[in-house]
TrEMBL record:
InterPro entries: Multi_antbiot-R_MarC. The keyword Transmembrane applies. This is UPF0056 membrane protein. The keyword Transmembrane applies. It is found in: Cell membrane. It is a multi-pass membrane protein. The chain crosses the membrane at residues 6-28, 40-58, 73-90, 113-134, 146-167, 179-198. Belongs to the UPF0056 (MarC) family. Keywords: Cell membrane, Membrane, Transmembrane, Transmembrane helix. Its main location: membrane.
Length: 207
């Protein structure tokens, strides 16, 4: 169970990427008070948790309704996660997030960023949805399901703390350290994504 928790935790941590979200959040909430930043961080994490829980609990039924095999989703999800990993290693993902944040910041009437762009799509984006569904499909039994959900809750709790402490974190580590961490996490995610694809292909073509 411990190995499953850490595997799920690392996968979700890499995909949701709290270190990468923190500087974006700091830029989006630059004019807000400390209380407003704290409240928006809590709301963003809570909304993301609800969205990911829905896909974790009912994602398999959704696939069944669409007549999609689990191994097909495993392959597609692995490819999607691999693309995210590629963007992390070459800093494409960070640039895209910064561009999106600048567009939101340039719109004066947008004040509360907890729903968009923080909860969706930065925290509960396609990659995180694919990851939680893959992890729940890999889990066997209620106990393992709860372990995966506990890992999700832990990652989002860390994300919430990172968002609330975004300003001090940026002053402490700086852009270079954050970029290095993102690249290392991207390499780990690429290996996990490759394993999903391998497992899906093995099961699909097994006799």
């Amino acid at each position: 169970m411990t190995a499953l928790f850490f595997s799920a935790f690392i996968t979700l941590f890499v995909v949701i990427d709290p270190p990468g979200c923190a500087p974006i959040y700091a830029g989006l909430t630059k004019g807000a008070t400390a209380a407003e930043r704290r409240n928006m961080a809590i709301r963003a994490s809570g909304i993301a948790l609800v969205i990911l829980l829905v896909f974790a609990l009912f994602g398999e039924d959704l696939l069944g309704a669409l007549h999609i095999e689990l191994d097909s989703f495993r392959i597609a999800g692995g490819l999607m996660l691999f693309w995210i990993a590629f963007e992390m290693v070459f800093e494409k993902r960070t640039q895209r997030r910064e561009d999106r944040a600048q567009k939101v910041a340039a719109t004066p009437e947008v004040e509360d960023v907890s729903v968009f762009p923080m909860a969706i799509p930065m925290l509960a984006g396609p990659g995180a949805i694919a990851a939680i569904m893959l992890l729940m499909n890999e889990a066997r039994g209620l106990q393992q399901d709860l372990v995966v959900l506990a890992a999700l809750a832990a990652v989002l709790a860390i994300t919430m703390i990172a968002l609330m402490a975004a300003g001090p974190i940026m002053r402490l580590f700086g852009d270079k350290v954050e970029a290095a961490i993102t690249r290392v996490l991207g390499v780990l995610l690429s290996a996990l994504a490759a394993q999903y694809v391998i497992d899906g292909l093995r099961n699909s073509f097994s006799i």
